Amino acid sequence: MNSTIELLLSHRSIRKFTDQNIPRELFDTLIRAGQSAATSNHVQAYSIIHVVNPENRRKLAELAGGQTYVAECSDFLVFCADMKRSTEAAERAGADIVRGMTEQLLVASVDTALMAQNVAIAAESEGLGLCYIGGIRNNPAAVSELLRLPDHVYPVFGMCLGYPDQQPDVKPRLPLESILKEDHYQDDNDAALVAQFDDTMRQYYLARTGGNKDTNWSEQLKPLFTSKLRPHMADFLKGKGFKLK
């Protein structure tokens, strides 16, 4: 394997960081690397809020569910899906704009995720660690107010960046056979493959916690699908101008 593939296969979330700050020149380079990601029709439907104010960092950590590393990492970013800039540019060019289409929401969300992953890979290539913060969507209205996000812009997730102060093991992934299908969707062997993966994850959790966490992948999924996960998001997105038309 080449070094790029080795880097990708070694990804792990980092939640403990040293006090060392990321040099500004390197930080800007990471963002430029993010901009080089693929983007639908060159729309570049994203904006990044670099949260520098310590008090705002603390507020975001609380809004994201008490994730203290949001306040403790060198740099914290909030990646936002942004259809405001591009639609207004087209409008100034003379277009009769249609806003609120579901496809616009999808394009902006996908563009944002691709851009963020480029930033993540670039950061890890420089020896940095990161952790995505989906908890930003726990309180998207409060986050939007704090960051002064206008209509047609919504916070997708956050990202902690910094120099790692831990080296956790790489978390196993599903067997390739369970996610790679040829020609058509096939799930005849999924139950067996998931059972195999559950055994793998049980051993991973036991080893990581010194025997204190006896669970598996399927068990960990249960809370996600036995309650309505972030039911506020539909109304929030509609309120931000993403009408899902």
Topology:
Elements: H1 3-9, H2 24-35, E1 46-51, H3 54-63, H4 69-72, E2 75-82, H5 84-92, H6 102-125, E3 129-133, H7 140-147, E4 153-162, H8 176-179, H9 190-208, H10 217-225, H11 233-239
Antiparallel strand pairs: 1-2, 2-4, 3-4
Helix pairs in contact: 2-6
Pfam family, one: Nitroreductase
InterPro entries: Flavin_OxRdtase_Frp (IPR016446), Nitroreductase (IPR029479), Nitroreductase-like (IPR000415)
Protein name: Nitroreductase
CATH architecture of the largest domain: 3-Layer(aba) Sandwich
| pLDDT < 50 stretches | none
Provide the spatial order of strands within the biggest beta sheet. Answer: 1-2-4-3
| Overall strand count | 4
Main sheet characteristics:
4 strands, antiparallel
Helix content: 40-55%
Rough shape?
A: globular
Structural class: alpha+beta
- In CATH terms, the superfamily of the largest domain is NADH Oxidase
Q: Strand percentage, roughly?
A: 5-15%
Number of helices: 11
Radius of gyration (CA) equals 20 Å
CA(first)-CA(last) distance: 45 Å
Q: How confident is the prediction overall: mean pLDDT?
A: 97
CATH class of the largest domain: Alpha Beta
Query: What are the secondary-structure elements, in order, as H or E?
Result: HHEHHEHHEHEHHHH
Named CATH topology of the largest domain: NADH Oxidase
Number of domains: 2
Keywords: Flavoprotein, FMN, NADP, Oxidoreductase
Family: Belongs to the flavin oxidoreductase frp family.
Domain Nitroreductase: 10-163
Protein name: Nitroreductase
